[in-house]
Every structure is written in C-alpha cells, then in structure tokens.
Amino acid sequence: GENVEQHPSTLSVQEGDSAVIKCTYSDSASNYFPWYKQELGKRPQLIIDIRSNVGEKKDQRIAVTLNKTAKHFSLHITETQPEDSAVYFCAASKRGSGYSTLTFGKGTMLLVSP
Amino acid sequence: SAVISQKPSRDICQRGTSLTIQCQVDSQVTMMFWYRQQPGQSLTLIATANQGSEATYESGFVIDKFPISRPNLTFSTLTVSNMSPEDSSIYLCSAPDRGTYNEQFFGPGTRLTVL
C-alpha cells in the first residue's frame, strides 16, 4: 500500500518568515495530494490540494509543489503569521473512476513566534 | 464543501462498555470514512462505510470491535465495542465533497476517554 513520509515533525519560525514542509510517497499511481491544517482541538481542515497533472498550485500565502518523478510534494507558507501555528498533514491517494482512500503523513507541528 | 456533524462530541466510558458515535452529512454521499486519531498522532483510517454494503476495514481493525452502520446516504454510526483504555482517542468521520468527489471533509470528532 501507499506510504507517506513527512518532514520535519516540528518547525519553529519567526513571524514573517517562510515555512516549508516536505512529503514523499511510495505509490507512483497516486495522483491526488491534499494538505490539511489541524488547530488544537479542532477538526482537520483542507487548505490546498494538487493533482498529478499540475506541478504547482498557489492560494494567497500558501503553495504546493509536486515532483512526480521524485515522488515528493511540498507545502510552502510565506509571510507566516501566529495564526498559522497548527499541525499540518499531507496525504496521498489515487483518483480514478472510483474513490480511493487517503494515506496521511505523520504531521508537522508548525509554531510561528511573534 | 460538505458539512459534517458528529455526536457525541466527547464521552468518558468505563472499560468493557460500548459507545456508538453518530455522523451526519448535509448531502448525500456514497462513501463515508471513519478515522482514529490518537493523542499527538496522525489520522488512521478504520474503515470505509458504503451505503448498501458491508464496510471495508483497514488492516488492524475488525468488525467485531468497530461495527459500522450506514443506513442511508447521509448518516453512519461507528461503535467502539468492549472498550479498553487503549481505545481512548479521537474518532472522526469524513466524507468527500458531493460535487467534486475529490476533496474530503471531516467532522468535528468525538473525544473518547476510557477509564
């Protein structure tokens, strides 16, 4: 089955700095890669996703890049703010005619200091 | 995006008892998913609940321990049976967006403590 590795497990940055979280996946057939943000005591929230026919996607201060050849994808957060502090999870799945389940990475705790 | 609710939000239970968690989606979806999130850990898929058929369980999870019902396209239940302290965890249900069938959204979770 799919295996998703996520690094780093914790990341501390100063407000205004950029943060990068990296994930690798094992199944070359995976073609959908979402990122979730989970604040303490809250549900995971989908913040951005990318499909394998796209190399990069941006949404304001967040962006995701995908390298299919190397089987890795990354989340980039620019101009970090204290409210970006949370645990971020990457995931991978295969989308086709049916629905495929998500395999999650172990998560990255991001701490943004004022 | 799908709006998903769960009941109860939290519970404290005695070992050996069972708890049934309810999940309601605001739109009809073919599949719903149940996850477990142990403290400080990632999300682990327990099973996929299809309407009209038996749930599909992931390795390490069995129907006798985690029976699932899916009576219609907007509702599912997960029962945690014969609980032990190791079952203390957050249990989340999720469902895909009805429009795109891609994005997956989560309920608020049920925080279970077993004494």
Q: Care to describe what's here?
A:
- The complex is a heterodimer of chains A (114) and B (115).
- Chain A is built from no helices and 11 strands.
- Chain A has 114 residues and is an all-beta fold.
- In chain A, strands 2, 4, 5, 9, 10 and 11 form a 6-stranded mixed sheet that branches. Chain A has a 5-stranded antiparallel sheet with strand order 1-3-8-7-6, with no helix packed on it.
- In chain A, β4 and β5 (45-51) form a beta hairpin.
- Chain A is globular and about 40 Å long.
- Chain B is mainly β and 115 residues long.
- Chain B is 0% helix and 50% strand.
- Chain B contains no helices and 11 strands.
- Chain B has strands at residues 4-7, 10-13, 19-25, 31-37, 44-50, 56-57, 68-72, 75-80, 89-96, 104-106, 110-114.
- In chain B, strands 2, 4, 5, 6, 9, 10 and 11 form a 7-stranded mixed sheet that branches. A 4-stranded antiparallel sheet of chain B has the order 1-3-8-7, with no helix packed on it.
- Chain B is globular.
- The mean pLDDT of chain B is 93.
- The interface between A and B is medium-sized, with 18 and 21 residues.
